[in-house]
Automatic annotation (TrEMBL):
The lineage of its organism: Bacteria, Pseudomonadati, Pseudomonadota, Alphaproteobacteria, Rhodobacterales. It comes from Aliiruegeria haliotis. One of its GO terms (molecular function) is FMN binding. InterPro entries: Flavin_Rdtase-like_dom (IPR002563), Split_barrel_FMN-bd (IPR012349). Residues 18-173 form the Flavin reductase like domain. This is Flavin reductase (DIM6/NTAB) family NADH-FMN oxidoreductase RutF.
Amino acid sequence: MFYRPEDGHGLPHNPFNAIVAPRPIGWIATRGTDGSENLAPYSFFNAVAYTPPQVMFATTGKKHDRDGTKDTLANIRDTGVFAVNIVEYAMREAMNLTSGPWDKDVDEMEMAGLRRAECESIDCGRVADAPATLECRLTQIVELEGKSNLVAFGEVTGIHMRDDCLKDGRFDVTTFLPLARMGYRDFTHVTETFEMTRPGE
């Protein structure tokens, strides 16, 4: 099968997200200038550089009261900081709950029964029990083709790792089974890893 996205795929559901999968989930915490707290998951998320460490996430929708975007990006635009929490399998239901179209004044972390801790290098809350959290300072926001398609890039200024996730000096993902997004309504989680050596190493 071949199709041009501009012509449509003719299938019951869009296959694009299922093809580009699995995708890590950035569970992004922000704080508004008014002190409001926000937590929402984004699966258009990844690390993009080592030195300095940098990450990105994209938001692809908007709310009527947020000037062409969603609460997360609106807060980042105003404050310049955000915290990316890594989602473990055990937190899947809480993560899903925070994905709803909640009002700006709803504290999703509190609603989902999650403990909040303060970040160290930025003025922002984080999910206290997450396997890891990346504290980030915004470097740029890029507008993509299409309506309300925006990408935020951030430099990682602080990293939290849960002690039980460190094994023999490595951050071991099999200790917490990171959640990943597939297509449609599907998710998966990492249960095992394998190693390969690059040529020349």
